[in-house]
């Protein structure tokens, strides 16, 4: 009888193990496109993402991924000599975990096993080939996606298997002016300014102007406090290493320069656009070539003025993207990924916009 019970227990354990092994999450990414592009405005690729596992996946429509046509830096492009185009698209703030919690109408793409989704990308919206020139380019898509548990909405990263990349020959026109029909850019010929020394507004309601002014004060306070903190702490601290990795004088000097630039620029000297962005899960974005304008999105208005992922912090995040301030990228989003980035690659952490934001928000508090 004991042997029978033992056998039943072993069989049950084996069955549970078999179920866990059988349940796999897997995405496969394939890239196709034009082989000869006569002008960069004809340089287009089609990204096909397929659920090749056996679980239905809720994949976040991360604007940095190929799941959306948002002109972010979603591709690595180079020719055989290593020449690459310059990126001139959007740099933005997005939080996968916040997006999953809110669970809006366009937050997820649902893929059942075997299902696919295709998204076309016009690379002329994001890349300028003027310096790299006419050549044959290898185009490799970002493989990083975020999936959410359908019950808990907990988010995890999932790297897609790459079935194919793409190679295209570019000739003729190498760059285009950004088109308002796609990027929705509006020149600020009709901006409003309530105070001579205050921010300018584009399409903002009276309530939004008040919220922006409070965010400007918070961002100014954040940047100033960070500037003084780094001036007073010239050795390693828990706060510095949490967000920027192993301390070095070079790293410290670089980060201090970034916050110095923020303080000198001031947040009352930007233009804040309230009616251009229509992305519900994005906080804000900038075009780094258009210094001075920050486009505010739905998640910005829903955020608190201070604290983690705040309005004030968002302005610090976005301003850091401008070349004149820090020229940061979006290497990691969210506190967990930013802390992991600091541990694994301090150089990339110093180049990461969210790391700059979380350092100034300092929530929870670190000394």
From TrEMBL:
InterPro entries: Fungal_M35_metalloproteases (IPR050414), Lys_MEP (IPR029463), MetalloPept_cat_dom_sf (IPR024079)
UniProt xrefs under SUPFAM superfamilies: Metalloproteases ('zincins'), catalytic domain
Protein keywords: Hydrolase, Metal-binding, Metalloprotease, Protease, Signal, Zinc
Cofactors demanded by this protein: Zn(2+)
Signal peptide: 1-24
Xref: Pfam families: Aspzincin_M35
GO biological process: proteolysis
Boundaries of every Lysine-specific metallo-endopeptidase domain copy: 228-361
Domain of life: Eukaryota
Gene Ontology MF terms in the entry: metal ion binding; metalloendopeptidase activity
Family as reported in the entry's similarity comment: Belongs to the peptidase M35 family.
Record protein name field: Peptidyl-Lys metalloendopeptidase
Taxonomic source organism: Dendrothele bispora (strain CBS 962.96)
């Amino acid at each position: 009888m004991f042997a029978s019970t033992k056998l039943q227990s072993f069989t049950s354990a084996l069955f549970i193990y078999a179920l866990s092994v059988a349940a796999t999450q897997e995405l496969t990414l394939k890239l196709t496109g034009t082989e000869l592009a006569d002008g960069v405005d004809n340089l287009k690729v089609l990204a096909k993402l397929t659920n090749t596992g056996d679980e239905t996946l809720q994949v976040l429509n991360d604007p940095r991924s190929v799941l959306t046509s948002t002109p972010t830096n979603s591709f690595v492009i180079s020719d055989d000599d290593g020449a690459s185009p310059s990126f001139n698209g959007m740099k933005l703030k997005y939080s996968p975990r916040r997006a999953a919690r809110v669970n809006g109408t366009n937050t997820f793409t649902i893929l059942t096993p075997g299902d696919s989704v295709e998204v076309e990308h016009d690379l002329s919206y994001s890349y300028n080939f003027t310096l790299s020139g006419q050549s044959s380019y290898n185009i490799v898509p970002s493989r990083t996606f975020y999936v959410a548990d359908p019950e808990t909405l907990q988010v995890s990263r999932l790297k897609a298997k790459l079935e194919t990349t793409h190679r295209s020959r570019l000739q003729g026109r190498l760059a285009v002016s950004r088109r308002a029909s796609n990027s929705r850019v509006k020149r600020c010929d009709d901006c409003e300014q309530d105070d001579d020394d205050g921010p300018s507004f584009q399409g903002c309601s009276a309530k939004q102007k008040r919220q922006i002014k409070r965010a400007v004060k918070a961002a100014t306070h954040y940047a100033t406090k960070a500037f003084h903190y780094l001036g007073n702490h010239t050795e390693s601290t828990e706060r510095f290493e949490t967000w920027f990795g192993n301390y070095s004088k070079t790293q410290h000097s670089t980060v201090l320069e970034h916050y110095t630039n923020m303080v000198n620029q001031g947040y009352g000297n930007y233009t804040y656009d309230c009616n251009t962005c229509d992305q519900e899960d994005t906080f804000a974005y900038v075009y780094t070539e258009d210094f001075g304008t920050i486009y505010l999105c739905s998640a910005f208005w829903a955020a608190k003025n201070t604290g983690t992922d705040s309005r004030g912090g968002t302005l610090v995040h976005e301003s850091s993207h401008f070349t004149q301030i820090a020229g940061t990228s979006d290497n990691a989003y969210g506190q967990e990924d930013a802390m992991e980035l600091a541990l694994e690659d301090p150089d990339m952490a110093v180049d990461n916009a969210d790391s700059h934001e979380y350092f100034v928000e300092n929530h929870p508090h670190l000394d």
